[in-house]
Task: structure prediction
Amino acid sequence: MIRINGLTHRIGATPILHDIDLTLPRGKLIALIGPNGAGKSTLLRLVARLEPLQAGRIEIDGLDLATTGTERLALAMAVMGQQTHVASRLRVAELVGFGRWPHHHGRPRAADREAVEQALDAFGLTPLRHRFLDEISGGQAQRAHLAMTFAQGTDWLLLDEPLNNLDMAHSRTLMARLADLVGARGRSVLTVVHEVNYAAAWADHIIAMKDGRIVAEGAPETVLTEPVLSALYDTPIEVSRHDDRPLVLHHHWHDQLGSPFPKPSDDTLRVLH
Amino acid sequence: MDRPAATLIAALLALLAASSLVWMFQGIGGGNRAFILQLRGTKLAGLVVVGAAVGIATVLFQTVAANRVLTPSIMGFDALYVLLQTGLVASLGVAGFAALPNAARFLASVAAMSLLAAMLFGTLVGRGAKDIPRTILTGVILGVLFRSLSTFLARIMDPNAFAVVQSVSFASFGSIDAALLPVAGGIAALCMAGAMWLAPRLDVVALGREAAVSLGLRFDRLVLVTLGLVGMLVSVSTALVGPVAFFGLLVAGLAHGLAPSARHAVLLPAAGLIGAVVLVAGQTLFERLMGQAATLSVVVEFAGGLFFLFLLLKGRVR
Amino acid sequence: MNARPLAAGLALALLVLASLGTGAARIDLAAGGGWTTLVLMESRLPRTLAVLLTGAALAVAGTVIQSLVRNRFVGPDTAGTGESAALGLLGITLLAPAAPIWIKMVAASLAAMAGTALFLAIVRRLPVREVMLVPIAGLVLSGIIGSVVTWIAWEADLLQFVGTWLGSGEFSGVIAGRYELLWIAGAAAGLAWFAADRFAILSLGDGVAIGLGLSTRGVMRLGMVVVSVVSALVVTTVGMIPFVGLVVPNIVARIMGDNLRASIPVVAAGGAGLLLACDLLGRIVRHPYEIPVGTILGIAGSVIFLWLLYRPVSHG
Result:
């Protein structure tokens, strides 16, 4: 379980997050959604200790982020940032192998090698294992990074916009793999997702953010509703259903008429929350 | 020329005149007055020619390269000149080279230099290089290559007397080669006149290749001609004082900052005058008031380097 | 595949033999004798060892600084490190001329560290995507620090003294008793190998490094120590050796990738081999005179570098 209390963050004089309280359950695929500049990535990066904590408290499976050593935290959560292009020339298997570093610090054992094989296999990278990262496609490299995060063997996986630069087919496969990690292997995933429909189709739990605050939180059915999304993105949005899941659509024939939806009152949002 | 531009040029001329007067007559004693004046006059002329040549060459080069941080020296022009000199010595033999009259030798290198510069740097920057940082890096590395080749050639020729190359490898405003001054000054004056004649066309070049071509300018040819002029001006300054890496950057930066108009008819004389003023005033300050003849080049390089770093951090180098 | 390391080792061994047999003094390795032993032990062997140590240490230092700044176009000689070391040595020579040599070396290394830190701070402020700006910043910084050194040396009338550090490096002055500090440079390179995985992870980016629980600051500091100690000792013992630290890691990475634990020994051997080949060339071209190895490398290195700059990027 990840517990966040009173988390406030600013960059320079600009406030990014306002006093956030949040509890993230284990064993779920949790998606962070919201418009640009909502503070999603900042929230994720703070939990991932990629940014220093300014105010508030974060706890991961009972480990206090402020007082636990970074090496110990690497055994509790694995992180994939937005920047997955690396300058160094590594083979796929070597990159994935570095995922085991927190466990062996340079002296890999049989268990570590086994974990790397599993990760390569789980992400369909076994045929590419000897290829250099700069010689495979962007989607494949993205997968290699994800496999490294997976090989780390932590309960938590934190991903910052993993669908960046991926086309529809790759995005679909990746989300399906994440769902599989949670469903079949019992991992917990927290990921920032830019495109709402990927969250709608695969997430178990959705957190909607806007202007540094949590606007709504809960199962996809409760968060992905027309009033919440229209207010979240300040644009008319229609929600339909597909495959027994919400499906978010643009309402473009209303554009010239202005927003057809009344802004949801604070009460509505509180209820949803 | 409009009023603000004329004011700037007049002010710069006045500054140059004032610093030249201080240079000529400061602390002049009773005896041997004529000799001292002649010595100082030669040096003054040298400083003015070098300052003007570097300033104008840099502005010309920046216009052609469509970038405000490139200078001929950063791109390895002066290293090429040194290499050319060494190559001439190597091919003619030390004795044969020495037998040539000074002026003829110099003219030959200037001609070769302008040709080489136009060819080499024309391919590198002519079409308005897309990847400016890579172009700069290429120039810097070419400079290293040329310098190493010169040293290598010199060592092969005569291991004991490669001082010839050494002497033109470091800048010194204190010791100007007086014998070359008349020829060098003449060439510089011709180049400057040529640059002024090209000024209206250079204004069009500054708009970029596409705009210039659509306005009916023979862009590629003009770029080659301009680079040839730059090559000659760099030969002049390098022959007189040696290589100066960042001085031109400083001068061109000042010229673009001070000039009220981006027209080359104003920019070019302004840059030339600023270069001359900086050198004359700086040399007066360091040699006369502080008694340190050799430090101006170091200070200028230091300040120019800091300025370049500043541009880099400001994100102007793109 | 297995023939490759064997052939490389053989080539290096041949270079070493050639280096032992080449020089101004005439000796007969087969016949032996007192004179031959003297020349070998006092001049040839020290020189060969010095070249090997310098080449290996510089190449490894290049790998380290490239992973610190995550940029392939940087070397220990283009980051202001050598000039800073010269500045430190100049400072201690002026302040305490009688200080023992190890204090001078510590001062040079500390100054080199400060210079490297300054370079890293500048790199951090550059726009991330502009890969080519990093080496340019390093070259300009080198120029600025170099001009300060020249100025101070001029003022203190030590220009000739400084010239041996900032001029192109050469090994002709190396005899027994004058190169042993280079073993420390070699040891620093060994330290880098010990921490190879850490540098490899660091070069994957801050996000990955932190995610894997690596103390990025500690690794940065270790890397700075390695680069600074190597540069300081090399510059003060034999002068500036350009391009080895820049070119060798690039070529090795191109052939076998950046798994540093595996590649650092190859980088070290490559640096040693390249430097020894250039030094030999400098000794042979105009025998019995010598051309400084720095000059030879200035030519060979810049040509290789230009090729690296313009080679087509391989993308799958």
